[in-house]
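Record type: monomer structure entry
Structure origin: computed from sequence
Chain ID: A
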Amino acid sequence: MRRSLGLLDGAAIAASSTAATSSIGIGLGLMAGVVGLHLPAIMLLAFLPVLAIAGGYGRLNAADPDAGSSYRWVGRTLSPWLGFLTGWVNTVGTVVFMAYTTTVTGSSIIQLLDLAHLRSVAGLRLDADSTVQCTLIGLAVLVGAALVAVRGLDLAARLQKALLVFEYAVLLGFCGYGLFAGDQPFSLQWFNPFAIPSFEALAQGMVLAVFCYWGFESVFSVGEEVRDARDASRGGMLALVVMLLMFLLAGTAFQRVLPLDELADNGAHGLAYFGARLADQPLAALPLIALMLSAVASLQSSVIPTARGMYAMGRDGVLGPVWTRLHPKYSTPAVGTLLITGVAVVLALCAVTVPTVNDLVSAAVNAIGIVVALYYALTAVASAVRFRHLLRTDLLEGLRAVVGPLLGAATLLFVGGYLAWTFYDSTDHFELAADNGWFQLSVAVMMIVTGLPVAAWARWRRRSPYFLGDAR
């Protein structure tokens, strides 16, 4: 594949994958319902283990840039089974994310149509909280984003940068104004993690916050297409720091403008509600437009690294050769990109059984947060094992590549495991409902165990070089 990306291109892909505007727009309300008025504290607390793990990612990428990224690194260092599991849960989690993000995209489009006084089409009343309507509209956007990704990373990166400039300008403007215009009294306790109501709230808040940072590592999936491998690490770190600043600003501004009950109750529509409280139309529509563009950008930046991860699996013989077919003109994994998009479309259509957008987002985010904590931790452990010799030869690099990732991995495994236990312990029966603990836990478990038969087939039927130790 072509080496066409620079530092800012990589940072744009990483930032679009983390989708700060979408995370702020739909994630802060969910977190407020868990941690109360401590959004800045939980975002700062979750940043620390993610930053530590990012150091491991950067060191691994500098030594071995690979489209498979964590799938290859964990497989080579720890075990091909754990490596496959890492790649599998990353892929499945991203596809689930794409499925519900299509719904969020459709919801924001319907809200914009409502502001334009277009409230029905062919006699059908448009409802921004209808999963069916929002999904169908969002799927059209998903297909368009995938076609741009097939065209090439250079075009995709230029589009991502343009969308990011608009999104961040809107966020900075509204959140900056909200800091001074809000009527809720400011408190330093907002930044105090020890004031979070309970350890259960802390654990769930941490998983949700880690989910908000999820995606920075997508820049490492295009490591083979970055002109300088160091630029991938720099781009990922730059995106992470920018995310932290945006989350701290937005969390503080939201709590200055909105009382806790309003912040928690609006969930998936939090950013639009925030904008409406600060400005009249048409200015109040700008945050909603930014949310829509963020969702579009995150759809595209999700399919890009996922297709490249599957390309690496196909190249290793873990999956079929169809995943390795490159576009004859653009040298992108075009077939894989379209296949991933097709799977996301099917999953999105299955998800229409969840009645409201807010319920769908809540169920998906908690499940994805648990599996993200798992594969981040595995990648961090791989970094620590591979570079453990640095503790004797270069202490500073050893802290970055060994000690920091290990501490980050231990933190995420602990909070993810504790949250899984609380889901299990929260009820005594299974129910297909977003607030049922066994249902939420089963979604995370299914993301993991569905990979086992695929791995077994690759190992004993395909006799993949990856599992036999012959992959290079």
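Annotation 1: The longest strand covers residues 120-121.
Annotation 2: The mean pLDDT is 82.
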